[in-house]
Design a protein that fits this description.
This is Lipoprotein. The protein is mainly beta. 9% of the residues lie in helices and 35% in strands. It folds into 2 domains: 222 residues, no CATH class; 206 residues, no CATH class. The protein is built from 5 helices and 29 strands.
Length: 460
């Protein structure tokens, strides 16, 4: 199937548009041939050219840091997470995805006297991590290893392809394990690490933060990727008195980051394209304007620019489906559905600004706009609503009629997993949380159909 548009003619606010070029007229609903005659509203499903695109997502954040981070990302900081582990999703095309987590901690204002006066050999140290994400097999335990970072890591707004140097030997106890299905996991650190770092551990505030670089956490040979809440992660020191009284001192998380990579990837199933979180694999869509169109290899001379007929554009949406039925899940394998998507469109030179067509400016330098989506449409689809899609296409048709480029040249779609779908439309422009989830998007006649623009027009 090849999609194309004929030039559009705007007459007194009425819009002249073209049809979709398809191998079968049924592919475009009511839009082919006689369907656009008689003055009755007609619906056109117009498919774009679709290709793969990869942009490594931001997976790092510094909590309570107002500088160096986009405002949309800062709004996610209470829900931010970092990932650890490896998953070989049984859905073909996904490959083996491995995530290494990084976490750094803030200095305390003070310490209980029981901690400062304790003999270092009587102290224990552990990481306390709240789980909030699981992709993979939930049964059994995971081996984990914790390593010291060798220098300060700039995790804030770091992308998933980045990494930071760590010492070669683990500082976690030998044989450390966690259960990925537990809501809270702890990882014990070696006694030798405590005694070797007691001077740093008892520093306060920025003195501690300057001396302590953080940890790298890996899960070798795991069968799942586990997510940990960035906001609740803590490093805990503990001492127990001779009378069995326990005293603790927690260091709160300061910043976290996830490095994600994929190996052994294969092709997705026939008739689908794959979007995949973490590695940043998404789709790039482009609608063609001003080309001839064919149905059953016969050229159609419908709605040429000089015909004098007008087609007011009554409604428009952009729809990118997620075929959830194609993602079979074996017994014991956990794969939650992503709770959001993000569509970034590239403006043509000289095109109207992002707000004029109902979108949000992402980058003036790169002429990029973020399109608000319908929150409740996720996870089944990424849906651009009428109040954004209609002005986008209306102005695009007018520009093409005037021998200019359309408003947007390319629409890039990515998974943007979020806390939940009960958010307002404005929240859908935010970057998503770190994730490894896959989505299969049909690109042929498979239900629920391919990505498309759905237009409702009324011939006059």
């Amino acid at each position: 199937m090849r999609s194309s548009w004929l030039p559009a003619l705007l007459v007194g606010g009425a819009l002249l548009v073209s049809l979709t070029a398809c191998s079968d007229s049924s592919d475009v609903g009511l839009g082919v041939g006689s369907g656009l005659q008689g003055g009755n509203p007609s619906t056109l499903d117009v498919t774009p050219d679709v290709r793969d695109t990869t942009v490594a997502p931001i997976t790092g954040i510094t909590r309570d840091s107002a500088q160096g981070r986009p405002p949309a990302q800062s709004q996610n900081q209470n829900a931010w997470r970092f990932l650890v582990g490896s998953v070989n999703d049984p859905r073909s095309g996904t490959g083996v995805v491995t995530a290494n987590g990084y976490v750094d901690f803030a200095g305390r204002d003070d310490f209980p006297s029981e901690i400062t006066s304790a003999d270092p050999s009587s102290l224990t140290a552990e990481l306390r991590l709240t789980t909030d994400y699981l992709h993979g097999y939930s049964s059994g335990t995971m081996d984990v290893e914790v390593y010291d970072l060798t220098s300060e890591a700039d995790m804030d707004s770091a992308r998933a392809t980045a990494s930071f140097d760590a010492a070669p030997s683990p500082v976690s106890v030998n044989g450390a394990q966690i259960n990925p299905s537990d809501s809270l996991v702890t990882i014990q650190l070696k006694a030798s690490w405590i005694t070797g770092n007691i001077g740093t551990l008892l520093r306060t505030g920025s003195d501690f933060e300057e001396a302590f670089s953080g940890f790298k956490i890996v899960a070798p040979n795991s069968e799942a990727v586990v997510g940990f809440s960035s906001s609740t992660a803590a490093l805990r020191l503990r001492t127990v008195s001779s009378s069995n009284d326990t005293t603790t001192a927690d260091y709160p998380s300061l910043k976290t980051f996830t490095h994600i990579e994929r190996t052994s990837a294969t092709d997705p199933p026939d008739g689908y394209r794959l979007m995949q979180g973490g590695i940043g694999k998404g789709l790039a869509m482009e609608w063609a304007y001003g080309e001839k169109e064919f149905v059953n290899e016969t050229e159609i001379d419908s709605l040429p620019a000089d015909s004098g007929r007008t087609l007011p554009l009554n409604r428009a949406e952009i729809f990118v489906p997620n075929d959830t039925s194609a993602l079979e899940t074996p017994s014991g394998f956990e794969r939650p559905q992503p709770q959001g998507y993000r569509i970034i469109a590239t403006r043509s030179s000289g095109a109207p600004s992002c707000p004029v067509v109902g979108s949000v400016t992402l980058s003036d330098a790169n002429e990029a706009c973020v399109l608000p989506l319908v929150p409740s449409a996720a996870p089944a689809s990424a849906l651009v609503p009428d109040d954004v899609a209609r002005p986008t296409f209306r102005q695009s048709f007018q520009r093409v009629r005037d021998d200019q480029s359309p408003v947007f040249t390319t629409f890039r779609v990515h998974i943007a997993d979020r806390e939940n779908t009960a958010v307002n439309e404005a929240a859908t422009v935010r970057p998503g949380l770190p994730t490894t989830l896959p989505v299969l998007v049909p690109v042929d006649g498979t239900e629920p159909g391919p990505p498309r623009a759905t237009l409702t027009v009324t011939p006059l």
